[in-house]
Design goal:
Length: 202
Amino acid sequence: MPDTEPEATAAPVTTTATEAEAVGPTRPITKVLPWTLFWAAGIILIDQATKFWAETTLEPYEGVPVIGEWIQWRLVYNPGAAFGIGGDYTWVLTLIAALAVVGIAIMVARISSVPWALAAGALLGGAISHLGDRLFREPGFARGEIVDFIDYFGYFVGNVADIALVGGAIAIMLLSLLGVSLRRPERPEPDPSPEAPSASTH
């Protein structure tokens, strides 16, 4: 019989789950972007609707108890930032708000992780709603006053957009501490083609 040498067959390449996550394709951004924008739009709608309710229902500066004296409805107009800081420089705060919206929008465009999408959507919705107040409310363009109506312990008066901003910021800090990535990897699709049988000689 003629001498034959068995053909060498390549050993199957195995990839661990960690390696697959590192090199595998990421979840398409388009899968989470609509939900991020929908979440942000919902926050804007709720914030502006509650501000409209406050302006048409409450008397300015008069407290209405909700949870005793701890939480009250109290309509105020804030030309400044938190705690009324910077009230004489509303146009500067408007510029900062616009830059914040642009920065958050850039971050949103890079996200494919659902937890990050929810956190960033909250930030985006709150920031856009506040920017809308600055641009279009009295006393004039880019000098508008923020409508606040939720009084916390008589110490701070805010609104729904503030809740979204604080909640989104806390969520982002937690996600960062937990090491959750902005881009969630997908498991690579298995190769549908069957493995070619190794040739043998007789």
